[in-house]
């Protein structure tokens, strides 16, 4: 299901399960001058492709960190014209994925969308996306906000990582920060943005910047 959440922004929720643990995910789709940027592409199917093509031409897919690439190749097989973007860490981790571009600080979607790379966390190497006209910040694994999960396996996993029914950064993510100063500096530029909503891959959207800043007080 494709849900329109702001002018030129849609989300596509999907779920994955690993060792009994449920992960609720979402792809975010941004239309830029009639062309679609798909961030964290989820499971591909013909119906979804057809529905997306009603919104705009499929142009870019972007794997925003080292973890959100699981469905990437099925999109590229179905739509080889897509321009594939990824991070340095992901290209190293999964050399078999053929990226057209490895992000290196450039701004290919300006002026509509600005990219911010999180520094000091090379294993995850996450990029945040800021859609200027709607004030939307798109976050992948920096923050979880899953408040409605149930079941013992989910409780165990999410509690272990400090994100059981909380708006928080996971312990795994925190453990991967190898240069706290660089990480903090990279986030400070985000705090200066005019943020109206934070679209989270894992959980409910945060409605304002205050929630974002409060969640990141651990830095
Ligand atoms: Fe994730």
């Amino acid at each position: 299901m494709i849900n329109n959440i702001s002018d030129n922004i849609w989300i596509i929720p999907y779920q994955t399960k690993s060792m009994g643990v449920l992960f609720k995910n979402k792809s975010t789709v941004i239309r830029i001058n009639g062309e679609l940027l798909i961030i964290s592409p989820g499971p591909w199917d013909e119906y979804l492709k057809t529905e997306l093509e009603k919104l705009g031409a499929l142009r870019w897919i972007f794997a925003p960190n080292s973890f959100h690439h699981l469905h990437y190749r099925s999109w590229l097989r179905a739509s080889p014209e897509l321009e594939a973007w990824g991070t340095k860490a992901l290209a190293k981790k999964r050399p078999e994925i053929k990226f057209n571009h490895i992000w290196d600080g450039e701004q290919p979607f300006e002026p509509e969308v600005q990219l911010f790379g999180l520094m000091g966390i090379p294993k995850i190497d996450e990029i945040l996306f800021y859609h200027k006209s709607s004030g939307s910040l798109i976050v992948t694994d920096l923050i979880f906000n899953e408040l409605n999960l149930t079941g013992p396996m989910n409780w165990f996993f999410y509690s272990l990582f400090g994100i059981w029914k909380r708006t928080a950064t996971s312990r795994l993510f925190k453990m991967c920060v190898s240069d706290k100063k660089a990480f903090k500096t990279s986030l400070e530029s985000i705090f200066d943005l005019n943020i109206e909503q934070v679209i989270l891959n894992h959980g409910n959207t945060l409605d304002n910047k205050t929630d974002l800043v409060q969640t990141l007080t651990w830095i």
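Residues 67-68, 140-141, 201-202 surround fe (ii) ion (CB under 6 Å). The chain has a mean pLDDT of 96.
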